[in-house]
Amino acid sequence: MEKPLHPSVEKFKQFVKKHPKIIQEVRSGKKTWKEFYEDWYLFGEDDEIWEPYKQEPSSAKPTEKGSNKWLEKISNILQNLDSDEVQKHLASVQQAIAAIQNIITQFQGSEMQHMRTAKDQHPFSFRKD
Question: Which one-letter DSSP state was computed for residue 127?
Answer without folding.
Answer: G
